[in-house]
Each structure stands twice: as C-alpha cells, then as structure tokens.
Amino acid sequence: MKFDTVIIGGGLSGLVCAIRLSQQGQRCVIISSGQSALHFSSGSYDLLNTLPDGKEVGNPFSVIGDLIEQAPDHPYSKLGVDKFPVLVSRAEQFFSGIDVPLSGCGQKNHYRVTPMGTLKPTWLSASGFVTSDNADKLPWKSVSIFNPVGFLDFYPQFIADEFLKLGTESDIHLFNLPDLDYLRRNPSELRSTNIARVLDKNVDEVANILNDKSEGSEAIIFPACIGLESDAFLRLQQAVRKPVLLIPTMPPSIIGIHTQQYLHDYFLKLGGVYMLGDSVKRADVEDNAVKRVYSFNHGDIPFAGKNIVLATGSYFSQGLIATSDSVYEPIFNLDVSYSTDRQEWYNSKIFEPQGYQRFGVKTDNSFRGMRNGKIIDNLYVSGAILEGFNPIKEGCGAGVSILSALSIAESILNK
Which domains occur in the chain, in start order? Predict the structure, then answer.
C-alpha cells in the first residue's frame, strides 16, 4: 500500500499533521492503535504556562529566548525565536479553517476553570467553556451550578468554594431525569459519556430545569457531559435565557472524544485513510530512509510512503517504553534521551517536576528522527514522544503536539 505520507498515531499531533498534508493534496494514511490522550482533554490547549525555572508565563511570545537558553532541546527551541510565533498563528488559522471553534491567542494566555474550580492559564479554549481574562476574578458576581444527581466526576461544592475566593457567589442545583435513573442502577454507568447520551436526547427538558432554577444568577455552570455526538449543547444554549457555560469533568472527556471524532471525520472527508485498531510492529530502513513499515493487522503487506511521521505519544500510548534501566522507542529503535541514573527519573515529592517526563526521542531541528546518531531522512517525530520538555509542569503539551505537527507538514510540503 503506497502513500505520500504514513502517519503512525491518531492523536492530536497525528491528526493535525495528516489534515494539513491532505489539505495540500497529499495521500495520507493514519495507523492508530485506538484511544488517544485526547479522550482526557480539558477542552483547552496549553501553549506555554511556565518556564523550566518555574517562572510563570503571561505572553509566550516574549519568553522564547529565555526558554531556548534554559532548555535548548525543547521542541520550541528547535523551532526558534522567529518560527515559533509564525507557527502559533498558523495553528490558530488551521483550527479556524476547519471550523473548530476556539478562543484565545498566543500573545497572551487566558484562564480556564479546572474540574476543581481553580483557574489555570491556557492558550486556546473550546467555545462554550468557562474562561476568564484575569487570574483573580471571573466575569460574574453570581452563577448557578447544576449537576445530575449522583454524578461523581463533577464537584459543585469545590467549584463554588473556589469561585467564592474569586468574588463569585454560587447556588448549587442537583437535577434528575427518568432516563438517568436507568443508568443509576449501576453506579459505574453514571459516567460522562453515558450521561451525555441521555442529555443529548432530552435538551428541552434540561433547558426547562435550568430556566426554572437559575433565577437571580447571571450565568449557568454545567458539567461538560453534553454534546457527545450532536449539537445538543448549542441547542441548550439557545433554549436557555442566560449564558450556559461548561466546566470539564474528570475523564473521560466529552469534548476530547468529540474533537477526536471530528478531526477523524474531517481527515476522511479529505480522502485520508484511517487504520483504526492497528499498530506498527517493525520497519525496513535502508540508506538512511524508511522504505516500508509493517503492522500487526496487515502482516507481510507493507505500508510504503515517501515520508513517515511518528506520532505515537509517550508512555501512556507506549510510544516510549521504560524498563528498569532504560527508555526506548519500540518501532524504529530511535535514539532516546534519558538519564542512566535511575534516581534522576523521579522526584519523591509528587508535585515537583519528574525527570522521566523530559525523556524522549532525539531529533534535529526539523524533527527528523535519529538512530545511532544518524538522521533518518524521511522519518519525522511529532508530539508527546519528543525530548526536552515537561508537558505538565511547563503547560505546553498540546502546543508541542500541534506546532511540531504543523512544522513537520511544512517540511514535507516544501520538499
């Protein structure tokens, strides 16, 4: 099977790269083992919240020079001071162009509300989620927080307590629907995905509840468990007499699942091929180029592409494998940066930066992978598998996935 580009991994980075290439006429295939980290998404995409030295970032554009000095192997450092803002702008245009409604810009972080009610800086947020331009206050003096009875992955009282610290008073309302009682027979079934299927079919009834019980408040706060496979949230907003805004729940993430499916479908509409439930097991590399890759489902029938993009993620999706004394990349055996001193892998203080999070595949500044110190000319590495950054402490995981994907697509198209 021959393609212009073979993308290994169907998460955010793989999908963004595949869509961008397909928009320019490339024939692409994505080989994906299944669920990606998008299923745990908050609905927001972080660009850069904190420098490696712990300094908070308000304007990511203004600190790239500092980042390069502190972390020369960071993916943003490989982009450089000039290219970084250009790609950020292109990323914003990319999502707008494929009708993914996001708010925010790279020149100034805004703040999203976490599932615990606290404010966290971010770059882009999905339309309809609670956000603020300020770190110490919200846009309303009073809100009404709603939650289905028995839904334990959303914490109204925690949220109300945090909102009060920000100067916003909250009243809490629990509601029920007959169809939710059926789910409640088995407590493990009262999860966000199953609740969303019920609420999506009962928008008018939910709207009546919100209208009846939110008198006196300026806005309605609702758990992000609606709109899984439809425009139910938009219809709810239209049916309620005041703003209805979402806060992410604990995983699984409705907005993440919806985004994954939307990008998947958009890729298919562009003519892409998506091999779901398959994994690449080995590759033929000749003359510093990948000639063929072989998957478990297709046996001896290879995938051949002029270019290969490795976007398999980090430890979560087994893009990286950690043993007792090493970290390795399992498909191509690419060079991986990690400490040989196991004590440097982790910090006993759980909320401190963990060393293993900076481990990843070594690349050149064009994100081409390396093996035994040599660049593989047509193998590009994208997203969470890259070396040199801490996606959690630095708040840059989504940004690295998106910008590295667009940079790689640009390199491939420029060939």
Answer: 2-41+257-414 (3.50.50.60), 130-247 (3.40.50)
